[in-house]
Amino acid sequence: MSETITIRMLEPVDAAAFQAFRLCALLDRPEAFGSSYDEEKDEPLGEVAQRLGARPNAVFGAFAEGQLVGIAGFARNPRLKQKHKGLLWGVHVDRQWRGQGLGRKLTLAVIEHARQHVDTLHATVMAENVTARNLYLALGFVVFGVEKDALREGGRSYTDELLRLDFQ
Ligand SMILES: CC(C)(COP(=O)(O)OP(=O)(O)OC[C@H]1O[C@@H](n2cnc3c(N)ncnc32)[C@H](O)[C@@H]1OP(=O)(O)O)[C@@H](O)C(=O)NCCC(=O)NCCS
To answer: What does pLDDT average to over the chain?
Structure first.
């Protein structure tokens, strides 16, 4: 890889680039995400920007030559009794940039950020998504549950694994 990669937290000003990338991800791998292209495609940019700035939630982005080529999100549970828990969501790397460590760097950025705000980080991965599953397990996540028929997409049913990474 010759280009310099920068990993940084996205800000409201990144809303348009984030939304475009996120929509591509939802089209690229609809079965890998709980959300859908149709649910997000008309979201006003202002709302996207607001969400990007709503700390402690955060989305980290990988930039190559100024272009967004990967993302990973963190959301703290908003419920009073559950705000010790966070969620890793929306991990996605542009096809051309896969296998070069970006997914790992982005997930690590979320983990380091999450460590400062929650005691445990949850994630959901489709059981057959070997790449993402290997990545999360290599970073210390453990499987604590299996949800059959968690998602239905394209006439198929998918099983999810529920993962957690405890910080204490
Ligand atoms: C999952 C994803 C983000 C990984 O991104 P990436 O930049 O290719 O991953 P990395 O290069 O950082 O690899 C990290 C780890 O993933 C695993 N991995 C990467 N490529 C793999 C492959 N082809 N097969 C199996 N495991 C693989 C390895 O454990 C690797 O660790 P290593 O470097 O010690 O070998 C990327 O494949 C992607 O965007 N997939 C589509 C969207 C998706 O499935 N998102 C996850 C939703 S839960």
So the answer is: 96
